[in-house]
Amino acid sequence: MKESKIEIIKRESLGLRGNIANELANDRDQFDSATCDLLKTHGIYQQDDRDSRQEKARQGKNREFSLMIRGRIPGGRLSASQYLAWDAVANRFAKDQSLRVTTRQSLQLHGVLKRELKQTIAEINAVLITTQGACGDVVRNVTQAENPWQDPRISQLDRFVVALSNHFLAKTNAYHEIWLNKKQVLNEQVVNGQVVNGQTKDADNETFYGDTYLPRKFKIAMTVVGNNSVDIYSNDMGFAATFDDGNQLDGFFLFVGGGMGMTHNKVETFPRVADCLGWFSVTNLIAVAEAVVAIHRDFGDRANRKHARLKYVIAEKGIDWMRGQVEARSQTQLLDLPLPTWKSPSVLGWHLMPDGYWAYGLHLTAGRIIDCQSRRLKSAIAALVAEYTLDIQLCADQNILLLGIRDKAAAQSILEYFGVRESQITALDQRALACVALPTCGLALNEGERVLPKYLSLINAQLEKYGLSARAPVFRMTGCANGCARPYTAEIALVGRSKQTYSLFGGGCAEGTKLAALLVDNLDENQIITALDKLFYCWRQQSNESERLGDFIRRLGFEQIRAQLIDAQQTEKNKKTKTRRRRNE
Q1: 282 in Cβ contact with 274 (< 8 Å)
Q2: d(CA 485, CA 309)
Q3: Of 142, 285, 318, 462, which one's alpha carbon is 20 to 30 angstroms from that of 222?
Q4: In whole angstroms, how far apart are CA 257 and each of 76, 146, 308, 356, 501?
Q5: Which positions fall inside the Nitrite/sulphite reductase 4Fe-4S domain (predicted)?
Q6: Contact, 479 vs 447, CB < 8 A?
């Protein structure tokens, strides 16, 4: 089988070193293409400002290149000093001084210049956070159910999430040589159970990954049964913990084969929700996890990266084959036990912790932590973290938990001082997600984060028009079909189709267990408004007062919904045609 270009680059990279160090030392403002592919496994993407491309080309100048840096933060958990270090690094090195919470409970910096890249990464590592393995063809950041209540059952997940993250961290010492000036590290440095600034003495012996690592990225999530705040069905592998009569963790339900990415007009690519393979004892966690990742390593498509995720292996070989492979490789029987119903609680707002302190779930629009003139959000969070030495948990819905507030009233005063007032957040806003998209993402076909507030305003108005605000759907939008903001499990979603249009998806569910389907393709803004108005009108007229939008779409059937929305699309096209004719008369 012919390998893709990136497979060859990885094999010839000498443990992900390639030419990174040499290019880092030169005075160019960008890295070469092959080096960019290797940088991803170090937690770095090279990007450019697409807003300025045309003007730069007109002037005969090079593109405005910069780097995006992403942290590897298991479970999204940070100490006060770690968060404040990220805040300070953003102030010094990020183009707009902002931080961004990702849908995988990590932090990103955008707009870092190449000449400042090494210093930025060094300062992140100085507070015992790495960027290694945050991107690239490896197991990426392991996500975990949020825990503002300090629920002892959820707290038991902490050590297992760290154990999985450590187990699948690449063994190459390239990261430490290049970014931290360490030629050989003989011992691991472990803080709170997490490998940080060290590797074992046989660091380059990639006995598990091999010299080509995985065919594609691999995502893991862990939660407790009944709580799907991590969107477990969208992951390559997920674990839902169970507990004995004494509330001690005794095992996990195993989920495999989820994934959101697809490519427009490529039928061989598709989103998929994970299957539950069964239950196993907690003592077999690492063996089972390694078996699943190894199946992806051994059977994943290394010729076509758009078809390389584990979901395609399972779709083609079958779930029974997958179960047999996992059981044989891990020497673990997967039991067919009933899975409890999912009912995920909201983490937003105030929560009283068992120690008498408070946790506060703060909503972030598209995960962006930035100071604006009237709402100095970034300064507010930093002030609270510094004042109360707060722990942090980043959320898979791009929000943030502030843990350990001693004085609720004083904290509220600090938030209000910086213009942060949560009463303005609607039910639609609370769970809406968007990817970064333009201007920095090279894959974006249309806008994401920058237009999310506009679409939230439009959809909120339509929901209010039909008295549906209390049943606001889970809404997500992305600039392309790769699915970074998990659009295909949302109740409604807009997916970038071209520079001016989106595809409208619908029929997922609030708990993320169902897959949405394409309803109408190639809609511009006016057509989107018309289509949603029609959809919401039908929902209001043909459902009871508790039926959610996703359930309504699936009950009526995708074909019937499509027919009604295509009529609405044609109506909008006819309006445009009449307007053009009048202008030409």
Answers
A1: no
A2: 17
A3: 318
A4: 23, 23, 12, 41, 30
A5: 170-332, 477-566
A6: yes
Sign of the Cα torsion 329, 332, 336, 337 reads negative
Looking at the structure of the chain, the number of domains it has is 3
Whether the predicted pLDDT of 494 surpasses 70: yes
> What is residue 203's predicted lDDT score, i.e. its pLDDT?
46
Instruction: Report phi then psi at 221, rounded to 5.
Output: -130, 150
- Per residue in 420-430, pLDDT (tens digit) is 998 779 999 99
Q: Tokens 């169902």 identify what position?
A: 514
Do residue 244 and residue 327 come from a single domain?
Answer: yes
Sequence-distant (6+) residues with CB within 8 A of 363 are 348, 399, 422, 425, 429, 430
Per-residue model confidence as pLDDT tens digits over 119-128: 999 999 999 9
Residue 259 tokens, joined:
């994934």
Q: What angle, 0 to 180 degrees and rounded to 10, lies between the N-to-C axes of helices 408-417 and 377-388?
A: 150
**Domain termination site, one of 403, 423, 443:** 423
Range of the domain at 155: 149-170+206-346
Tens of pLDDT, residues 61-111: 999 999 999 999 999 999 999 999 999 999 999 999 999 999 999 999 999
Separation of alpha carbons 19 and 505, rounded Å = 42
Residues 72 and 68: their CA atoms lie apart, in Å, by 13
Q: C-alpha angle with apex 409: 407 to 413, nearest 5 degrees?
A: 115
Does the residue 523 lie in any domain? yes
From the number of C-beta atoms within 10 Å of its C-beta (0-12, 13-18, 19+), residue 164 rates as buried
Burial zone of 374 (CB within 10 Å; 0-12 exposed, 13-18 middle, 19+ buried): exposed
CA atoms within 13 A on the CB side of 517: 12
d(CA 432, CA 73): 22
CA dihedral 101, 102, 106, 112 (to 10 degrees): -70
Note the pLDDT tens digit of each residue in 15-46: 999 999 999 999 999 999 999 999 999 999 99
- In degrees rounded to 5, what are phi and psi of residue 30? -150, 160
For residues 433 and 413, membership in a common domain is answered with no
Identify whether residues 577 and 438 lie together within a single domain. yes
Token representation of residue 66: 């910069």
For β-strands 220-224 and 237-243, DSSP reports them as parallel
Q: Where are the alpha helices (DSSP H) in 404-546?
A: 408-417, 427-431, 452-465, 525-542
Neighbours of 563 (CB within 10 A): 10
* Residue 328 sits in the same domain as residue 369: no
Within a 10 A sphere around the Cβ of 210, how many other Cβ atoms? 12
**Interval 389-401: pLDDT, tens:** 999 999 999 999 9
